[in-house]
């Protein structure tokens, strides 16, 4: 395996260490593969147990993206190889989604400060990696989104939890349209905590080496289970360093915030057909961001629109672990359903951008049709692969 994730441990001035993990696949905009997810989960666990590591920094190689999604090519191959055999026959998809979701949950519950540099494109699987970080940083070039409607999947990686926690009904709008957010709207939607200019990032990283990080109680050789310094100390030091690097200029409101009142009115109902029609009516809107959002939805998978809506409705009050379990079932079902493979084919394989969605209309993708995405595909005697998540 190539070094698809690069690791470095940088010594701080007071003898502690900062663990740096760099997604190293810039040719695919640092798309997350199964091997990368496995490797990252293993190293994060090691750093969590190392009392000298006071902070973990997660970033992407190159200047274009932190992470623009998951391994769509690998999933496409697995879907082609297991076509017609049912969702449980796709061993690669079973492993990929389990490892990816466990990694995302691990980041959400990480015991140490975890800084994610969300520069450039942060899409789909990249959102899953970034959203659980304790300190989420964007640059002036950040573009965030969950564009699964265009490939026939749904906003997964905890998206059904995340989108439900956005202001008003904006999360539903983003799920149905795949609209991208700029730096300003990343804050409005609750996807970012800090803003650092791209040119200032190296200086920020260097400044972290000078912080008076709190090390383990009793010294680095202490074996006691409670030897770690209070989490709040190092969280506070990291926050102070990030605030010191934030630009003085105020960010102008982005299009999501500008149109949030209208979006809430359009998406606050309980009938998907009415919400869909109201968003579709924006296709000729004078604001190009709204028009593009509507047109993306209309060109996207009607099945994804139905599934994303249903997941957000059903999982509104569920825990993060429960959301991952439900999304795992839905993701496996999506690999056995034609739209996911067809969406990848049209976008990445044949690149004709003419997907033949099935069902072809929202009316055909009804409430009865969507039920198959909630049926566990494994033998009844087996537990859920994520049964222990959150235990």
Task: Describe, in plain words, how this protein is organized in 3D.
The chain has 391 residues and is α/β, with parallel strands linked by helices. 43% of the residues lie in helices and 11% in strands. It has 16 helices and 9 strands. A 6-stranded mixed sheet has the order 1-2-3-5-7-9, with helices on both faces. It has a 3-stranded parallel sheet with strand order 4-6-8. The longest helix is centred in the N-terminal third of the chain and has 18 residues, at 91-108. One of its GO terms (molecular function) is 3-hydroxyisobutyryl-CoA hydrolase activity. One of its GO terms (cellular component) is cytosol. It catalyses: 3-hydroxy-2-methylpropanoyl-CoA + H2O = 3-hydroxy-2-methylpropanoate + CoA + H(+). Keywords: Hydrolase.
Topology readout:
Layout: E1 5-11, E2 17-23, H1 34-49, E3 53-60, E4 65-67, H2 72-81, H3 91-108, E5 114-118, E6 121-123, H4 125-131, E7 135-138, E8 143-145, H5 159-162, H6 170-177, H7 183-188, E9 194-195, H8 201-208, H9 231-245, H10 255-258, H11 260-267, H12 272-280, H13 288-299, H14 302-314, H15 320-336, H16 338-349
Parallel strand pairs: 2-3, 3-5, 4-6, 5-7, 6-8, 7-9
Antiparallel strand pairs: 1-2
The N- and C-terminal alpha carbons lie at a distance of: 32 Å
Question: How many independent structural domains?
Answer: 1
The dominant shape is globular
Outline the biggest β-sheet.
Answer: 6 strands, mixed
Number of strands: 9
Number of helical segments with 4 or more residues: 16
CATH superfamily: 2-enoyl-CoA Hydratase, Chain A, domain 1
CATH class: Alpha Beta
Q: What CATH architecture would you give?
A: Alpha-Beta Complex
Predict the CATH topology.
2-enoyl-CoA Hydratase, Chain A, domain 1
- Topology as H/E string? EEHEEHHEEHEEHHHEHHHHHHHHH
Strand order of the largest sheet: 1-2-3-5-7-9
Runs with pLDDT <50, length 5+? 218-225
Radius of gyration over all CA atoms, rounded: 21 Å
- Secondary-structure-based class equals alpha/beta
Catalytic activity: 3-hydroxy-2-methylpropanoyl-CoA + H2O = 3-hydroxy-2-methylpropanoate + CoA + H(+)
Enzyme class: hydrolase
Protein name: 3-hydroxyisobutyryl-CoA hydrolase
Keywords: Hydrolase
């Amino acid at each position: 395996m190539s070094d698809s994730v690069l690791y470095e441990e940088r010594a701080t001035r007071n003898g502690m260490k900062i663990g740096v993990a760099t997604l190293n696949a810039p040719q695919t905009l640092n798309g997350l593969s199964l091997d990368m997810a496995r490797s990252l989960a293993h190293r994060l666990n090691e750093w969590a147990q190392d009392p000298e590591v006071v902070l973990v920094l997660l970033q992407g190689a190159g200047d274009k993206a932190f992470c623009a999604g998951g391994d769509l090519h690998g999933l496409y191959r697995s879907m082609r190889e297991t076509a017609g055999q049912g969702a449980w026959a796709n061993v690669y998809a079973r492993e990929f989604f389990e490892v990816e979701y466990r990694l995302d949950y691990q980041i959400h519950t990480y015991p140490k400060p975890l800084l994610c540099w969300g520069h450039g494109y942060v899409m789909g699987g990249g959102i899953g990696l970034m959203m659980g970080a304790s300190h989420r940083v964007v640059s002036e070039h950040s573009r965030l989104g969950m564009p699964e409607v265009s490939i026939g999947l749904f906003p997964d990686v905890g998206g059904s939890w995340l989108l439900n926690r956005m202001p008003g009904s904006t999360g539903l709008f983003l799920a149905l349209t795949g609209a991208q957010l700029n730096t300003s709207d990343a804050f409005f939607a609750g996807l970012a905590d800090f803003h650092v200019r791209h040119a200032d990032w190296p200086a920020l990283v260097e400044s972290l080496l000078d912080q008076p990080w709190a090390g383990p109680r009793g010294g680095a050789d202490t074996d006691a289970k409670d030897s770690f310094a209070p989490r709040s100390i190092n969280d506070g030091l990291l926050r102070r360093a990030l605030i010191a690097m934030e630009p003085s200029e105020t960010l102008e409101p982005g299009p999501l915030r500008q149109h949030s009142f209208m979006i809430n009115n359009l998406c606050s109902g309980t009938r998907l057909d009415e919400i869909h029609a109201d968003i579709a009516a924006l296709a000729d809107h004078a604001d190009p961001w709204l028009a593009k959002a509507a047109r993306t939805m209309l060109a996207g998978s009607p099945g994804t629109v139905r599934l994303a809506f249903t997941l957000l409705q059903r999982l509104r009050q569920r825990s993060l672990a429960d959301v991952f379990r439900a999304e795992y079932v839905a993701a496996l079902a999506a690999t056995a359903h034609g739209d996911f493979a067809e969406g990848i084919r049209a976008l990445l394989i044949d690149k004709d951008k003419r997907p033949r969605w099935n069902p072809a209309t929202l009316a055909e993708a009804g409430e009865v049709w969507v039920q198959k995405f909630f049926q566990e595909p494994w033998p009844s005697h087996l537990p859920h692969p994520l049964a222990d998540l959150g235990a």
